[in-house]
Design brief:
- The two termini are 44 Å apart.
- The chain has 572 residues and is α+β, with helices and mostly antiparallel strands.
- It has helices at 17-28, 59-76, 105-123, 142-145, 153-158, 173-178, 201-211, 273-286, 302-315, 324-335, 345-348, 350-354, 357-363, 371-379, 387-410, 419-454, 461-502, 508-533, 539-571, and strands at residues 4-7, 10-11, 38-45, 50-58, 92-101, 127-131, 181-185, 190-196, 216-217, 238-239, 246-253, 258-265, 291-297.
- The mean pLDDT is 93.
- The longest helix is centred in the last third of the chain and has 42 residues, at 461-502.
- Helix 17 (461-502) packs parallel to helix 19 (539-571).
- It is globular, with a radius of gyration of 29 Å.
């Protein structure tokens, strides 16, 4: 699975839509290796004279789009003429990279530093690195990097301790026009409102003070009207709240007729959404209030809702080994995400918004079919889907049956103390199922690569050479995909063994059928490895692939036989 990152540049132009459109167009036009980015939102503000753009994609396209956005802003915006209500230091004022999936914050910080270096090297625009990308502790704070704003840049560049991390030694014409950009990496920020069964802003604010990291001022007697307490240095004393990385206030929303605790979760690793929800519920109840639902403002990564779904299932001592859609549905039900209006994951989850429906239909042509259509397509005169795709689907069915037995065992009456044991098995089974389902279409695409290579021209010696190289690369891939299917299908057998031994005895036959499917998948995929390996010129590599396939098949067959003995014995 490719790593996905989000970028949210803030450009110092919120009035001239021609300028804004040009910048966004440059971002959206990026293409790296056939992949671009998806612009999710463009939010101009006239009073602030500032536009926030949100786009997502794989790492390389996002980095290139970010660079092109900075380049366009540097060409089109003159900071010497800029005025607005929001603090700013450059035409591209802030440029944060945010991990969404498959990448860590630390990795994004390295990317941000490299991007800042490139911006200065190729464009001459100075850059400060902030938050996780900061080179010094004090520069983690954006306010420190942007101190004095654009107008202070001549003085800051001349001062050794205040110069940009990447920048010139003097305030030149480029800096005069572009200002300085602040390039950073931060965790995904979740904006969320918790709905309360009250109209009291004061009570909502009290809950917000209870939970936000900053907390509240300490007062004499603990009352809200008491004198603010100070320490021996004369500084006000604060009582911290219970949630790290959270900012919150209470307000009244006239549209809904309720008060809310409005929160920004700036560190979702320390405080996941479901943890914030539970704590706001607890603190509200202590004050005689109840949280009636949750309103997510903007977008969330899929992992936020998946982890919430797992958490709430665990509270019920229920297996988390269910599909992604069900986990998200449980999260939505548990936190009341549809309290104010229907919650549609397809409109709120970043990964879903990134999906191009036409592209997905091509990529998942087979797995999107009905069972009837899949069988008809297989039975047609077309050579694909063939044995490789069918083997992958058999493997997916084997993993699914093992997962089913695990879920049934987790929910079996009298086995309540074992729910976590079976939930762990079911989660592993779900991961295998998903992996093998993806291989159904991947095997057919591997065959398509061979056909594409065979169709290449072969009129000249150079064309023949290129065609042969492409054919060998495609043939190697056509070996590797079914070998992947073998490995994943073989992993379904230990699951079936555990369920045959220790799972719900009423479902032991299902564990047996799962083992039959898994072994058939292993053996079917092995045939594909062998027939494709025969076409490889690199015989050492061919022998390596077939040897591994033979080993996997032998081990899988032994496990299968053990499982079937247990199943037959238990059936009696």
């Amino acid at each position: 699975m490719a790593a996905i990152i989000e970028c949210v540049p803030n450009f110092s132009e919120g009035v001239d839509m021609a300028v804004i459109d040009s910048i966004v167009e440059r971002i959206g036009a990026v293409n790296v290796g056939g992949k671009g980015v998806k612009v999710l939102d463009v939010d101009p503000g006239k009073a602030t004279n500032r536009t926030v753009v949100t786009f997502v994609g794989e790492v390389e396209p996002v980095l290139e789009a970010a660079f092109q956005g900075v380049k366009a802003a540097g060409e089109l915006i003159d900071m010497s003429l800029h005025h607005g209500a929001h603090p700013r230091s450059g035409a591209t004022d802030v440029l944060p990279l945010i991990p969404v999936s498959g990448i860590t914050l630390e990795e994004c910080a390295v990317l941000a530093r490299d991007l800042a270096k490139r911006i200065y090297r190729e464009l001459g625009i100075p850059c400060y690195c902030y938050e996780a990308a900061a080179f010094t502790p004090e520069r983690k704070n954006l306010a420190v990097c942007r101190q004095g704003e654009y107008e202070a840049l001549p003085e800051k560049i001349a001062s050794e301790g205040r110069r940009p991390d990447f920048g010139p030694a003097e305030f030149n014409d480029i800096v005069k026009k572009s200002g300085a950009s602040n390039v950073g990496a931060r965790d995904f920020l979740i904006a969320v409102n918790f709905n309360l069964n009250t109209t009291s802003t004061r009570r909502a604010m009290s809950v917000a003070f209870d939970v936000r990291e900053k907390g509240r001022k300490a007062r004499e007697g603990g009352s809200i009207t008491g004198k603010v307490l100070k320490d021996e240095d004369g500084s006000e004393i604060w009582i911290p709240g219970t949630l790290k990385g959270c900012k919150a206030i209470g307000w009244y929303i006239e549209e809904y007729g309720i008060a809310q605790v409005s929160m920004n979760i700036t560190d979702i690793r320390q405080t996941p959404l479901h943890v914030a929800f539970e704590e706001v519920c607890r603190r509200s109840q202590e004050r005689g209030l109840r949280v009636t639902g949750t309103e997510i403002v903007g977008l969330v990564p899929k992992s936020v809702l998946v982890e919430a779904g797992k958490y709430f299932l665990a509270k019920q001592s229920r297996s988390a080994g269910v599909g992604e859609e069900e986990l998200i549905r449980i999260a939505a039900l548990s936190m009341g995400l549809s309290d104010l209006k229907p919650f549609n994951p397809r409109e709120k989850v970043i990964e879903y918004l990134m999906e191009d429906e036409k592209e997905m239909q091509i990529k998942e042509k087979l797995v999107r079919m009905t069972l009837r259509d899949f069988s008809l397509e297989t039975a047609s005169e077309s050579p694909a889907p063939g044995g490789g795709s069918v083997s992958a689907y058999l493997g997916a069915l084997g993993a699914s049956l093992g997962t089913m037995v695990a879920n049934l065992s987790s929910h079996k009456r009298g086995w309540d103390d074992r729910w976590k044991e079976f939930s762990d098995y079911a989660e592993r089974g779900q991961a295998l199922r998903e992996e093998l389902v993806c291989l159904v279409d991947e095997d057919t695409r591997a065959f398509g690569r061979i056909m594409d290579a065979l169709s290449l021209p072969k009129g000249t010696d150079e064309e023949k050479k290129a065609r042969k190289a492409a054919l060998q690369a495609a043939t190697l891939y056509a070996c590797e995909v079914p070998l992947h299917t073998m490995r994943a299908s073989a992993e379904a057998l230990p699951l079936a063994l555990a369920m045959a031994k220790d799972g719900n005895p009423a479902s032991v036959s299902d564990a047996g059928v799962g083992a039959l499917c898994a072994l058939a998948a292993v053996r079917g995929a092995r045939l594909n490895v062998r027939i494709n390996a025969a076409g490889l010129d690199d015989r050492a590599k061919a022998d390596e692939l077939t040897s591994e396939a033979d080993r996997i098949e032998k081990e899988a067959a032994a496990l299968h036989d053990e499982i079937l003995k247990i199943v037959e014995t238990k059936i009696g």
